[in-house]
Amino acid sequence: MAPSLESQQLQLDGSETPSDNHIADDEVPNKSRVTVVGSGNWGSVAAKLIASNTLKLASFHDEVRMWVFEEVLPGGEKLSEVINQTNVIPTS
């Protein structure tokens, strides 16, 4: 079975929330959405900086989605669940 990608959203303060709390497309017309692919150090920093910048622009939604390569950590937890619960990317 192939590994999956899982999405998480960065809120206004940079914290993540479950991906089922997204804004419907018809609620705010003509606003751009941003997604960062990758959750490593660079992807996380980029997502946080992008999220803080999109808040200043009315042409963007107030969320940035981050796509995470789903992997199981040595302790048996899913990487995306650990990131969502602790807001920290675990080191290997």
What is the number of E strands? Answer: 4
Placed side by side, the strands forming the largest sheet appear as 2-1-4-3
Tally the helices: what do you get?
A: 2
**String of helices and strands:** EEEHEH
Rg over CA atoms, rounded to whole Å, is 14 Å
Average pLDDT confidence is 76
Percentage of residues assigned to helices: 10-25%
Structural class: alpha+beta
Let me know the largest β-sheet: 4 strands, mixed
Distance linking N and C termini: 23 Å
Poorly predicted tracts of residues = 16-21
| Overall form | elongated
- Percent of sequence in beta strands: 25-35%
Task: Please describe what this structure looks like.
It is a single chain. The protein has 92 residues and is of the alpha+beta class. The chain is built from 2 helices and 4 strands; from the N terminus they run E-E-E-H-E-H. A 4-stranded mixed sheet has the order 2-1-4-3, with helices on one face. The chain is elongated. The two termini are 23 Å apart. Mean pLDDT is 76; it is low at 16-21.
Which keywords apply here?
alpha+beta; 92 residues
Can you describe this structure in just a few lines?
With 92 residues, the protein is α+β, with helices and mostly antiparallel strands.
Topology:
Blueprint: E1 5-10, E2 16-18, E3 32-37, H1 41-54, E4 60-69, H2 79-86
Parallel strand pairs: 3-4
Antiparallel strand pairs: 1-2, 1-4
